[in-house]
Design goal:
By secondary structure, the protein is mainly beta. The protein has one domain. Helix content is 11%, strand content 43%. Strands 1, 2, 3, 4, 5, 6, 7, 8, 9, 10 and 11 form an eleven-stranded antiparallel β-sheet that branches. A hairpin with a 6-residue loop joins strand 5 and strand 6. The longest helix has 17 residues. 18% of the residues are buried. The model has no long low-confidence stretch (mean pLDDT 88).
Length: 199
């Protein structure tokens, strides 16, 4: 009887162990997200620089001052952004004919577009927070006529990226603020961040 008990016990152990093949199943690395969709949420005026003639003095101005230069600065032209990492493309979506698609290059978190035979900085892509920060800049320059030498010169543009002192003075109508010698000479630039969280 003991023999048959041991045979049954051994058989049971063999049967129960044979079904216990521990297969190690590794969790595959989750697939990297390739296409991100973002929707406009809010904005932040990073800085405003304003210089006035005839002294070329820098003036501190409130955000509301921008309304006389750029009345729509609080709302970007594009309400959505699509970033395709696989195709290296950025699609700015307004829902009208103002939609634009660019080829992009991403270095760390900085996004550059191919524009005007070169690369232009357009914004920051924070992959961890799934947030795209679109960088826009306004530059406005007005040079009043000088004594029988020249007429009124006026330039205003809104562009991607960030504008600084070195981009305005020395590279445009005035080499430096001290050349702003007429009443009415006016230089203004501002940098605005538009925040687009993931949809």
């Amino acid at each position: 009887m003991k023999k048959s008990f041991y045979i049954i016990l051994t058989s049971l152990l063999a049967v129960s162990c044979s079904g216990n093949d521990d297969h190690v199943i590794e969790n595959p690395k989750p697939a990297e997200k390739e296409v991100y969709s973002f929707g406009y949420k809010n904005y932040n005026v990073r800085n405003i620089s304003a210089y006035k003639g005839p002294s070329g003095q820098k003036n501190e101005v409130p955000e509301s001052y921008l309304n006389s230069y750029w009345s729509t600065y609080q709302e970007p032209a594009w309400k959505k952004i699509s970033l395709d990492l696989k195709k290296s493309s950025l699609h700015l979506i307004s829902g009208t004919s103002a939609d634009i698609t660019y080829n992009v290059k991403i270095e760390k978190d900085s996004v550059f577009i191919n524009e005007n035979s070169g690369q232009s900085f357009i914004g920051i892509f924070n992959k961890n927070e799934a947030l795209f920060t679109l960088k826009r800049s306004l530059t406005s320059i007005k040079k009043m006529p000088r004594e029988n030498i020249s007429g009124l010169t006026f330039s205003q543009k809104v562009s991607f990226g960030i504008t600084g002192y070195q981009d305005v003075f020395g590279n445009s109508i005035f080499s430096n603020p001290s050349e702003m010698t007429e009443a009415g000479d006016d230089v203004l630039w501002c940098n605005i961040d538009y925040y687009f969280p993931s949809l």
